Amino acid sequence: MIKSRLSAVLSAGAASAALLCAPDIASAQSSQAALEARIAQLEAELNALKGEVVAARTQQAAQAQDIIRLETRPANPAPAPVQQTAAPASLSEGFRIGDHTVKFGGFVKVDAYATRYSGGDPANGDSLREFHIPGSIPIGGADEDTATDFNARQTRFWLTTDGIVGGHKIGTRMEMDFQTLPGAGDQRTTSPANPALRRAFITIDNWLIGQEWTNFQNTAVLPESADFIGAAEGTVFARQVQVRYTRGPFSVSVENPETTVTPFGGGTRVVADDNSLPDFTARYAVSRPWGDLQFAGLLRQLKYQNPASNIDSTATGWGLSASTKIKVGSKDDLRLMVTGGEGIGRYVGLNFSNDAVLDASGELDAIGVVAGFAAYRHVWAPGWRSSLIWSGQNVDNDTRFTGLSANRSAQSIHANLIWSPVTAFDVGAELMFADREIETGASGDLTRLILFAKYGF
Asked: Residue 418: which of 394, 392, 454 has the closest Cα?
């Protein structure tokens, strides 16, 4: 088509030239203006044809390249990668916001309890009905039938961020559950529960600032239990605001102070809010092929002021704790913790013992405590495992000051079987027996069967 159009343009040009050579000069002059216009038109058409020729050659070259690619590509080519512009399917894998990777996760846990109390059932809404609190086991009440309770309050969620800002590694964590703050009302309609803050802290390089497990505690050795804590009597257990510095295996912290006091002669616990110095902790961790070992120390001020009673007293509290997780064979492990000291009651066994007692002159006298636990975890088969747990605490009360109603000792034994049919999904059962004794020698116990289902995400 391009060749035919080019021939037409040339023919028209020849005809125009013949007109210029015609003998009739007058006629030619009269047609000069029209001829010049025609020549300009022919030049424009010729330039357009040149452009089409160039375009046609370019298209032919591209088609030739396509043919080459089709002939040389594999018979079953891999699909082209898809650019991910949305967040990952699982938020626990993280997604980017600015300079930070944000992750979200947690678990849903549903528990069923069947409990027999020797000293009378706790009231509806009492936390003892939902997890083991050594100091709350009833003593002296009437023996009643087995009480059954259901709840989902251990359900937990957390959110973390991690990033590099100005050359510094900065992270945050916020974690909440529903266990320790039951909602107003009872179980007649909605079994209400309120979210409770567990952990909320910032990390900047080696520093941690915010609410976290106390540096005096080793959470890595806590036994696997269907109960909220498990070895409650024998473990260090506290979450509180602190400033912590960690360098390698060594960490130190200053933490929120609080003193719990037994009035002279016994009575309702006094939670004093009078401390002027923070609690100080230090911890050293050792990791070896056979397992892990940690040593921790605590030094604290005990203080109570009550102008109405003319009381203004301070004392010193201290504690030492050692814990370990030892590998047994390729899958089993042994977990141990032992803690002792004076004036550390609120740190051990969910405040089974108070930190101090007032003597007859209104001075604080630190109360001594020794506590510990041992737990053996055995893997029966893939997805099947059990833990056998013993936990106990003994308190060195000066009964001249505390009276005979103070807690003397507590212990518990747990045995469980847990099955994970799929990843992150656990179902299990645990049988536990626990007792509490006071200084009079009176005691109370509970026997509890726990059934649970838990799925992490």
From this structure: 454
| pLDDT for res 294 | 98
Tokens of 390: 């013993």
The single residue listed with the structure tokens 């212990």 is 411
| Closest CA relative to residue 237, chosen from 257, 212, 213 | 213
Which DSSP helix (H) or strand (E) runs through 12? helix 2-20
The model's pLDDT over 319-346, given as tens digits with 9 standing for 90+, comes to: 999 999 999 999 999 999 999 999 999 9
Partners of 92 in the β-ladder? none
pLDDT reading at 291 higher than 50: yes
Cα dihedral value 352, 356, 360, 363, nearest 10: -170
Global pTM value: 0.77
Indicate the average pLDDT of the chain.
86
Question: What are 173-220's pLDDT values in tens digits?
Answer: 999 999 876 655 567 777 888 899 999 999 999 999 999 999 999 999
Tell me the C-alpha distance between 305 and 308, whole Å. Answer: 9
Q: Which of 179, 155, 114 is nearest to 350 (CA)?
A: 179
Residue 52 is encoded by which pair of tokens? Answer: 């089409």
Residues 212 and 239 sit within 8 Å (Cβ to Cβ): yes
376: left (phi over 0), alpha (psi -120 to 50) or beta: beta
SS3 72: helix
CA nearest neighbour of 447 among 427, 457, 432 = 432
Rounded Cα distance, 152 and 187, in Å: 12
CA–chain centroid gap for 430, Å, is: 25
- Structure-token pair, residue 62: 């591209």
What is the rounded CA–CA span in Å between residue 373 and residue 393?
9
| Buried/exposed code over 176-193 (b: 16+ C-beta within 10 A; e: otherwise) | bbbbeebeeeeeeeeeeb
DSSP of 239-263, one letter per residue?
A: EEEEEEEEETTEEEEEE---EEEEP
* Spatial distance between the Cα atoms of 217 and 297, rounded to a whole number of angstroms: 10
d(CA 214, CA 238): 6
DSSP assignment letter at 353: S
User: Which of 43-57, 109-123, 293-307 bottoms out in mean pLDDT, i.e. has the lowest?
Assistant: 43-57
Pick the closest to residue 109 from 419, 420, 432, 427 (CA basis).
427
- Residues forming beta bridges with residue 389, ordered by sequence position: 375, 414
CB of 439 closer than 8 Å to CB of 408: yes
